[in-house]
Design brief:
The structure holds 2 protein chains of 2 kinds. By secondary structure, chain A is an alpha/beta fold. Chain A contains 10 helices and 9 strands. In chain B, strand 2 and strand 3 form a beta hairpin. The chains are: A alpha/beta, B alpha/beta.
């Protein structure tokens, strides 16, 4: 079942991005309350720590911020920026919603794709955008991901992908459902050439993205505490009419059940991804370089 | 036709329609059911096995909803668990090994949304089917016979040909779910059904299916005879295709590839 959680950024910080100006308060530095430890954290400290609270809570991040965390400085070259959503079914209100979201998010679509270097290693990189209709997958998202895997297969490059998604974009109906099959086929072709794909699941990764390319990686990593599942918790609760177990659909729950390789905090991601890329690039690595 | 798209949804859900096992029993001969995913268990919502289609062996897989209240409860109302999808995949890989075609009958409101299904990796099970079916080296034909509910239906529909019964529906989300998310009102399901373009005619015009199957004399011998003839003929065509897998890739690759470039 496709679940679209369309969430507006709750404030300037969540709106994120390099462009968002801090909210000015009457006195002192602006702060943000951590939903986990309930402490107020100065924004500057959050920014310096990749939007991670001292208690370990990972705040949601924009696609370009994820790219910024792992890509070598200045190495990211965007691809397929020109592919954007249309309103193929003439779904009521969809065109207007996309226009609004484009302005609010500063992005043209719900996934950013390109090439980059991570720790000096060339790769293809994609990151989904939570502030663009909660990373929902329509035709343009499916097209960009598919094109990226085809490009990576042609250039024999590994792919690293940061997922965040409410699922298929229901305003594109069956066309969005078919993107699950299309992206899966492209990931398979890339894989059949012996090439590496690492997914990093971020909060939340659900619905049709979980049921396609998020769960098809050779190595599946996740951020601590990220919601990972197929059906939304609310739908599960409605269907079963029972209380949900504690920690249901957290990355830790999903790892315990055998579907995630490792949970990697943001502070370690670049180092871990670099090491994984090096271990798969065919050459031997001097052990003194190893972590 | 004066039926609204929501009327079609109600028809597709109707309990009087033939279910998966009716198709298997009337189209094929000598069906032998194979149980279990060899991982965890056996899901009664998906039945599968081998049978003969005009004499030739085929692998047959169907989502089964059941007819009576007791059957429907046993079949979990046609909402499969991960082990159902894994059983289907096991049987498809077996078909590939022995070079026989695969036919899938699809009828589900969606993959089961429960704690057990999530714990056992519903998303991963569906993803693996999409991934493996995209390169399965034998012909696959999938027929939507009632409800085609989202990823739970697509997990058996990455096929060379996808057909729909005239009153079947195929959708990314139920009209009620769509209405409650978008308009906070499940009562607007009629509007959602119209907007989602989920009828067989819509699916055909969107290029998602190849053929609409008439429901004349549905459930009777001539109805099943027609489908048998169609399947037999199409499998003969597909089995002669030297680039079956490449063509299947292109079949899905072109959907949504015309996203506007601005």
């Amino acid at each position: 079942m496709a679940i679209i959680n369309f969430l507006k950024p709750k404030n300037k910080l969540e709106e994120g991005g390099r462009t968002a100006a801090p909210v000015q308060r009457d006195e002192g530095e602006p702060e943000k309350k951590c939903p986990n430890c309930h402490k107020d954290i100065p924004l500057s400290r959050l920014w310096a720590n990749h939007l991670v609270c001292a208690c370990g809570h990972h705040f949601r991040m924009k696609a370009r911020q994820h790219i910024g965390v792992v890509a070598d400085k200045g190495s990211f070259q965007e691809l397929y920026d020109e592919k954007i959503a249309s309103n193929p079914l003439q779904f009521p209100g969809y065109g207007e919603k996309v226009d609004t979201v484009r302005l609010a998010s500063g992005e043209r679509e719900a996934v950013i794709c390109g090439t980059a270097r991570v720790g000096g290693q060339a790769c293809c990189l994609f990151a989904m955008e939570p502030y663009f209709m909660m990373g929902s997958m329509g035709s343009a998202v499916g097209e960009k991901i598919t094109a990226l895997f085809e490009y990576a297969a042609e250039k024999r490059l590994p792919v690293i992908g940061f997922t965040v998604s409410g699922g298929a974009r229901m305003q594109e109906g069956l066309l969005s459902l078919m993107q699950m099959a299309k992206t899966s086929a492209a990931v398979k072709r890339h894989s059949d050439q012996g090439l590496l794909y690492i997914a990093v699941l971020t909060d939340p990764t659900t619905g049709g993205v979980t049921a396609s390319f998020a769960m098809e990686a050779d190595i599946i990593l996740a951020e601590p505490g990220a919601t990972v599942g197929f059906a939304g918790a609310r739908v599960v609760k409605q269907t079963t009419r029972k209380a949900l177990p504690g920690g249901f659909q957290t990355a830790e729950f999903v790892q315990e059940h055998g579907f995630i390789d490792a949970i990697v905090p943001r502070s370690n991601q670049k180092q871990q991804l670099t090491e994984l890329l090096k271990m798969h690039n065919g050459g031997c690595v001097d052990e003194s370089d190893a972590i | 036709m004066s039926q609204t798209p929501y009327d079609r949804v109600k028809l597709a859900r109707g309990s009087g329609r033939p279910t998966g096992l009716d198709y298997i029993g009337n189209i094929f001969k000598g069906f032998m059911e194979f149980h279990g995913d060899r991982r965890f268990g056996d899901d009664p919502a998906i039945v599968g096995g081998i049978a003969r289609l005009n004499g030739s062996p085929v692998t047959v897989i169907a989502i089964e909803k059941g007819h009576t209240a007791r059957e429907r409860a046993k079949r979990n109302f046609g909402a499969p668990h991960p082990e159902g999808y894994r059983k289907a995949l096991r049987l498809m890989k077996q078909a590939e090994k022995f070079g026989r075609p695969v036919v899938c009958f699809i009828d589900t409101s969606g993959a089961y949304c429960g704690v057990s299904a999530e714990a056992r990796g519903q998303g991963q099970a569906i993803a693996e089917n999409l991934w493996e079916m995209s390169t399965l080296c034998v012909p696959i034909i999938s027929i939507l016979i009632g409800e085609g509910g989202s990823g739970g239906a697509l997990a058996l529909a990455v096929a060379d040909r996808v057909w729909m019964l005239q009153n079947a529906v195929y959708s990314v989300i139920s009209p009620e779910g769509c209405a409650s998310i978008l308009w906070k009102d499940a009562g607007k399901a009629e509007n959602a059904a119209a907007s989602l373009k989920l009828t067989a005619e819509d699916a055909k015009s969107l290029g998602v299916i190849e053929q609409i199957l008439s429901e004349n004399e549905i459930g009777q011998k001539p109805f099943y005879d027609r489908i048998r003839t169609l399947l037999d003929r199409e499998f003969q065509t597909l089995s002669r295709d030297p680039d079956l897998v490449g063509r299947r890739y292109e079949r899905f690759r072109r959907i949504g590839a015309d996203a506007p470039v601005r």
